[in-house]
Amino acid sequence: MKILTCPLNGPRPVSEFFYWGEVRPMPNPNLASDDEWADYVFNRNGAPGVKKEWWCHTPSNTWFIAERDTEKDVVLKTYFYQGEE
Amino acid sequence: MPWRLLRFALNKKHPEPRMFTFHEKLKPSYDVVIIGAGGHGLAAAYYLAKEHGVTNVCVLEKGYIGGGNTGRNTTIIRSNYLTPEGVQFYDESVKLWQDLSTDFDLNLFYANRGHFTLAHTDSALRTMRWRAEVNKHYGVNSEVVGPEVVKEAAPMIDLSCAGHAPILGALYHAPGSVARHDAVAWGYGRGADQRGVEIHQQTEVLGIDVQAGKVKGVKTSRGYISTGKVLCAVAGSTPRILKMVDVKTPIYIHPLQAMVSEPIKPWLDPILVSGSLHVYISQSARGELVMGASLDPYELHGTRSTLDFVEGLSTHMLEMFPFLSGVKVMRQWAGMADMTPDFAPVMGKTPVEGFYLDSGWGTWGFKATPVCGKTMAHTLVNDTPHPLITGFSMDRFRNYALTGEKGAASVGH
Fold it and tell me: Which ipTM was obtained for this model?
């Protein structure tokens, strides 16, 4: 079983976690054009690589960021969200 | 026997007929380059040559013929989808399937079994009714049946599903079938090969040469090819190719796993699917149970399989068929599914002139192999999308006009 390290609860089985996709900055909805908004809503960076992703430890409802290599399925680090960089 | 083999090994001309011609070198240019020698790519090559007379075509394959999702699916063919676009498209595919063995002169083991989608809740039954009515409207044979019909078709089933998910009814789709998936790729490949198409295995695409918004050529691990038209039919590798041409799409990759049991006596004729229990099952001609569940929960560009999957799927299998508790699992594997937000494919032209996509085939691509080949060949030759695929264009996202196909496999609704 794959183990993921929750920044609050430590190493836990991956079945306790929920994946919520890559961290993507939201454009300002009042200023974005229809095309920019559609790009944000639908388009994804689908190619493999090291990505920052939202994960949630569901029993404790702890949301955090994992940096993961999506080709090798190796988690490089996990930490709490620190605001937009 | 060994002497006979040795004679062939020493004879460079190989008098023994081969399924595919081996080409020493790539030509410097082709009219069409197809990336991906799976079912979809080879079908497009086949129909380009057979129906449009375009034979200066090269099919590039990083691995081997049919080694991707063509050889990793659970071989189910059906057309009981929910949207009008989906129903018409897949129905055309089912019609093509029925003549393929004759067309190829190759036995695809196409077996018409009948297909049940089980409903365990009132809301699921309501969706089944909806699908049945849309299907009937388009002349597709689907109907809602009661649990007794399911029991008659699969007498070993526990209709209560261990007491907690009783079967209330099912959507029965009589044309539901299975076929031998490898043979489909081989049949299309051989047909294309005989008509002059070149298939190059072990040839990886490293880049696509785009100048002023137009495709000029393809860089491969065996050299450069110039061409004006490229068809990308690479399923789970689609985002990698799209990165080369800088085209953005909503496609994301999750693995889909499957497994087979050891061969046992024939006891299951129809194909059974349960969305609530995340199980689909059929019995192959060899007696193996071919089983699948649902998409893996997170993005991954690999084909590793997991014990979690076998445990989860087996648990639900035993709720439906408790007598299988002594049967061994023989093999498990995974494929990379190229998913879209509306469970419909992304097909046709792209913002790059001469670059065509046949993608977004997620968990539902095998059954569409013939019709994809046919419609993509038409699209490549005429440079306008075939009428059956206009609903699947990539513009639909920008226009907020999604297709919303809720009849797809292995995804919750």
Answer: 0.94
